[in-house]
Amino acid sequence: MTSGNRIAIVGAGIAGLACAKVLRQEGFPVEVFDRTPDLGGVWSATRRYPGLRAQNSKHTYHFSDFPMPADYPRVPDGQQMQEYLDGYVRHHGFGGTLRLGTEVVAADPVDSGWLLEIRDQVGIHRTSCDHLIIANGVFSDPAVPDFRGVELFRQAGGQIGHASEFLDVEWARGKSVVVVGYGKSACDIAEAISHVAASTNVVARRLLWKMPRKLARGLIDYERLMLTRMGEAHFRYQELNRVERFLHGSAHTVRESNLDVIQELAIKRSHLRELGLVPEGRFEEIAESTVGTVTEDFFERVGMGLITVHRDNTIAELFAGQHGPGARLADGTLLQADIVVCATGFQQRVPFLTPYVQRQLTDENGNFRLHRQILPIGVPNLSFVGYNSSVISALNAEVAAHWTAALLQGRLALPTQEEMAAQVDERLRWMDERTHGHHAHGTAITPFSIHNIDEMLADMKFRLPRRTRAAQWFRTIRPSSYRGLTERSKGATVAPARDHAPAPEEQRTP
Predict the structure, then answer these.
(1) Tens of pLDDT, residues 197-217
(2) DSSP for 315-382, written as a single string
(3) Fold exhibited by the domain 7-140+348-506
(4) pLDDT tens digits, one per residue of 53-91
(5) Dist CA 65 CA 56 (whole Å)
(6) 21 and 88 in contact (C-beta within 8 Å)?
(7) How would you classify the pairing of strands 315-321 and 324-329?
(8) Bridge-partner residues for 310, per DSSP?
(9) Strand, helix or coil at 143?
(10) Which of 15, 79, 399, 451 has the smallest CB count inside 10 Å?
(11) Is 7-140+348-506's fold the same as 143-346's?
(12) Measured on CA atoms in the order 416, 419, 425, 430, is the torsion positive or negative?
C-alpha cells in the first residue's frame, strides 16, 4: 500500500492519536472518528470519574517527541492528561483530521477497502477508506453486572451505573455509596467520594496486590520494578533472554527473595495486616494481567473508618427496603445504598464490524487473535492499535503506530498466515496459563511492556544503541530514547540515539 491510500482510524484516544500523527507524517491521508465530542479516550471529559489519575509518572507516560509540561505534577490527573493530548494534536498540527462527535456505526469490507456508515449531528452518512485501523481501546464497552432486584432498587430511588458514567463527586454528597470492585478505578472513586458521602462501602470479590508508588527511598519504587528490564525480568515471559533464564533458573531464589521483600514492604507501607486486607497468593500476581498502584490516602481512610472494604464478597441482590434502597451481600450483610458504582471493568468489542468479520477476529473464547497485538489473520486492510494495553501505553501505542506504517508501506517481512496463526495460538495459551484467563481477551501485555516494544522494533529492523539498552536494565525506560523512529519516518539520517530525557525544567508546555 502506498502513502496515497486513505486511512480511517476509529478512536481518538492515546492510540488513535499516535497512529494519526505517525501515518500523517508518512504521507497517508488520515481521518479519525470518535463518537465523543472531545478527544482523549479514557481521559475524555465524558467518562472521567472523580479521582482519575495516570498510573505512572509524567516522566514515563508520554510520547517520545512530546514530553509532559514542566508544571504538571509528578502524576497527572485526568483533566491534565486530556489537555496534554490536546496539546499533542496542536503541536503536530493534525487537528483537521479529527471528526469528533462522529460515530462509526457500521464497517463493511469491500474489494477496495472498507465502506463506513457514520453518524454525526446531521445524520447518517457513508464514506470509504482503503485501510481501517481500530483504536477504540480495550476499555471501550463498560461491563455492568446484572444484579438481581435492580428494578425494585431503582423504583425505590436507587441509582446504579458504571464507573465511567460517574463524573461528578457531588453526586455522592450525603449519600450512601457502594463501590463494586477493587481495581484502580474502584479505589480512586471510593477515596474521592469518601470525603462527601454519608457512607462508602467497597465490595471486593477478590483482593488484588497493589504497589505503592514509593517503597524504599533510593532502592525500589513502582516504576523501577515495572519499567526497567531488570524489574520486568522478575516475571516469566514466554521466551526468556539470557538474564531471564538465569533469574528463573539457577538464581530463582534471588528472584523470589526480591519479590518477597517487595511484598513485605508493600504490606507494611499500606498497613494491610492491621486493616485485614492482605491479598491471598504471592506478590508477583500483581502482574497477572494488569498492575495496580495504591490510590493515595485510600488505605488511610479505610483505617479512619471512612471507607469499609468487604473483602471476598459480592452483591447477592439489590433491594428496596423499609429505609430506602440497599444491597445484600453474599455473606448476608445488608448495606444502605443510594448509589451503586460498578467499577467492574470493560468488554473488548468492535460492534460496528459485521458478525462475519468479528468471528474471524476472535477465538471461541472471545480472545482477539492478533499478530503483535496489531494484525488480524485473514482479514485484509484491517489493523488494530492500542490493543497492547500496558503501563506505558503512550509509548507502546506510538511504536505500534510506526509498525503499522511499515506494514502499510510493505517494509515488514511477515511470517506466513499459518505461522502467524500458530504463534498467536501459542501466545494465547501461554497468557491463559500465566493469568488464569485474566488477560482482557488477549489485549493485555502487562508487565511485559518493554518486551512488546522490542519485538515490534525487531520486525522494523530498528535497534536501540547498546548503551541505551544497557541503561534500561536498571533505569526506568525513557520515551525520548525512541525518538529515532520518528526521525527515520521523516527520511532523516538517524544518528545513534543518546539515552537522555529532558530535565523537568527543559520540558515544553503544549
Answers:
(1) 999 999 999 999 998 888 866
(2) EEEEEEETTEEEEEETTS-EEE-SEEEE---EE---TTB-HHHHHHHB-TT--B-EETTTEESS-TTE
(3) FAD/NAD(P)-binding domain (3.50.50)
(4) 998 899 999 999 999 999 999 999 999 999 999 999 999
(5) 18
(6) yes
(7) antiparallel
(8) 203
(9) coil
(10) 79
(11) yes
(12) negative
pTM of structure = 0.91
d(CA 199, CA 306): 7
CA distances from 259 to 2, 162, 220, 222, 267 (A): 49, 34, 11, 12, 12
**What is the phi/psi pair of residue 200, to 5°?**
-130, 115
Task: Compute CA distances 440 → 145, 179, 210, 428, 436, whole Å.
Answer: 17, 21, 19, 11, 11
d(CA 307, CA 305): 5
CATH number given to 143-346:
3.50.50.60
Cell of 172: 455522592
Q: What is the pLDDT of residues 20-54, one digit of tens each?
A: 999 999 999 999 999 999 999 999 999 999 999 99
Q: Which residues contact 442 (CB under 8 A, 6 or more apart)?
A: 367, 368, 369, 370, 373, 387, 427, 428, 431
Question: Domain residue spans in the chain?
Answer: 7-140+348-506, 143-346
Cα–Cα dist 239/103, whole Å: 40
* Over residues 85-111, mean pLDDT: 97
Enumerate helices (H) and strands (E) in the chain, giving the number of each. 16, 24
- DSSP state string for 392-447: THHHHHHHHHHHHHHHHTT---PPPHHHHHHHHHHHHHHHHHHHTT-SGGGTB-TT
Answer for the pair 111, 129: CB distance below 8 angstroms, yes or no.
Answer: no
Q: What is the pLDDT of residue 502?
A: 36
